[in-house]
Design goal:
Blueprint: H1 4-17, E1 20-26, E2 33-36, E3 44-50, H2 57-71, E4 79-87, H3 88-95, H4 97-103, E5 112-120
Parallel strand pairs: 1-3
Antiparallel strand pairs: 2-3, 4-5
Helix pairs in contact: 1-2, 3-4
């Protein structure tokens, strides 16, 4: 993206979040753009602009940068998805008593399962 104001927005995101911003043009998507926020496992913010929106790319990137700035205004509240493997019974216990009773029925699940957990760090 070439507009100086867009470059300033990208720099502001990088300065405020500590992560680099990568911008690409992409085809084959329905949206005007896709934005993926950085996280420890993928330490770069990705902004992908639909190739059909090339004429508006600077504006789209600036808007996406604004969303990143709002999201990262309090880094302690940025959710991170963590893949954690632990026994299914442990997951049910942490979900509450109704799920634990249900899980005590004859087993239909494998002893271990991978589960996604939201972790706010």
């Amino acid at each position: 993206m070439t507009h100086p104001d867009t470059q300033k927005m990208i720099q502001l995101v990088e300065d405020q979040t500590g992560y680099r911003v990568s911008v690409d043009l992409i085809s084959g998507i329905q949206e005007h753009a896709q934005m993926i926020s950085a996280r420890p496992g993928s330490p770069v913010h990705l902004i992908r602009v639909n190739d059909t929106q090339r004429a508006f790319a600077d504006y789209i990137v600036a808007v996406q940068c604004g969303m990143l700035l709002v999201l990262w205004s309090d880094p302690s509240k940025v959710p991170a998805i963590v893949l954690e493997e632990r026994p299914a019974a442990d997951q049910a216990e942490s979900a509450g008593p109704a799920w634990s009773r249900w899980l005590r029925c004859p087993p239909i699940f494998p002893k271990k399962s991978a589960g996604f957990m939201w972790k706010v760090s």
